[in-house]
Design goal:
Elements (H helix, E strand, L loop, with lengths): L27 E2 L2 E2 L7 E8 L4 E12 L2 E4 L11 E2 L2 E4 L9 E10 L14 E5 L9 E2 L9 E6 L19 E7 L14 E6 L5 E2 L7 E5 L5 E10 L11 E5 L4 H9 L1
């Protein structure tokens, strides 16, 4: 079902993370239902039987007719998650609509390391066949601190402490956010490859199940362009809804992405 070339781990850590290091990267708490179509949004069904999670999910973004980008920790077998081997693209429903493709290959960034925060938390998935949905364009660079952004995802909408109690949203949710300064995240969290993200709504942020889901900003043409994928919390925090979020800076990996797809 999976190609073993270019990756050593297969299982998905679909809900923001199954360990404390990525606890705020899941579904969107205190967000709202999607107000527009996001044809590039993708979802990856997962389970984690050892932790009691039977109906988990990770997000991803279509960046090429046959490739999606997600968080590397979504594919980390050490976390204990198992993908069902498919990706759904272009639906605002987690379990219906859009286009479903099988996973043909997974390529995890060679520098990925599970930590607090995760290092090089980015991976690519090749679909078995191209889709007709329109991919999202990668931004040349993220806007500076204060730039309006938006995050979307199918993660939990109410915080829960154990994976067995995580209830993933069946409808796509969104939250308006902004780029935060490095100093607005915890010491050592944000940097050149990790974006600090601040909610514009009190006590709201990505949570379990939102891992790998996109963060976007408006381009010059007014269209959404991709700047990040959900990685984890931006500081030590007691819950998903408290504190900033942390997003892998996708444009920082543009050369690696282009090289991988060409191969």
């Amino acid at each position: 079902m999976f190609s073993t070339k270019s990756f050593a781990v297969v299982a998905l850590a679909g809900a923001a993370c199954l360990v404390a290091t990525a606890g705020s990267a899941g579904a969107i708490v205190n967000g709202k239902k999607a107000t527009e179509s996001y044809p590039f949004m993708a979802s990856i069904p997962i389970s984690a039987p050892a932790l009691g999670l039977k109906d988990g999910v990770c997000g991803a973004a279509l960046i090429d007719p046959q490739w999606v980008v997600t968080a590397a920790h979504c594919l980390d077998m050490e976390i204990g998650s198992i993908p069902n081997g498919t990706v759904r693209v272009g639906s605002d429903h987690r379990k219906s609509g859009g286009t479903v493709r099988k996973i043909a290959q997974v390529v995890t960034h060679p520098g990925y390391a599970q930590s607090s925060p995760n290092q090089n938390d980015i991976a690519l998935i090749r679909l078995d066949r191209p889709v007709s949905k329109k991919p999202i364009q990668l931004a040349e660079r993220p806007g500076g601190p204060g730039t309006p952004t938006r995050i979307i995802g199918f993660g939990i909408t109410k915080a829960a402490t154990t994976p067995a109690d995580w209830k993933m949203s069946n409808r796509l949710n969104q939250l308006d956010t902004r780029r935060g300064a490095v100093s607005e995240c915890g010491p050592g969290f944000a940097g050149d490859t990790r974006l600090c993200t601040i909610s514009r709504v009190p006590k709201a942020m990505a949570c379990n199940g939102d891992s790998g889901s996109p963060q976007m900003q408006r381009g010059r043409n007014g269209r959404w362009e991709l700047i990040g994928v959900t990685s984890g919390p931006g500081a030590k925090s007691p819950s998903c809804a408290e504190g900033p979020g942390l997003y892998t800076n996708v444009p920082a990996y543009a050369e690696w992405i282009s090289r991988t797809i060409r191969k």
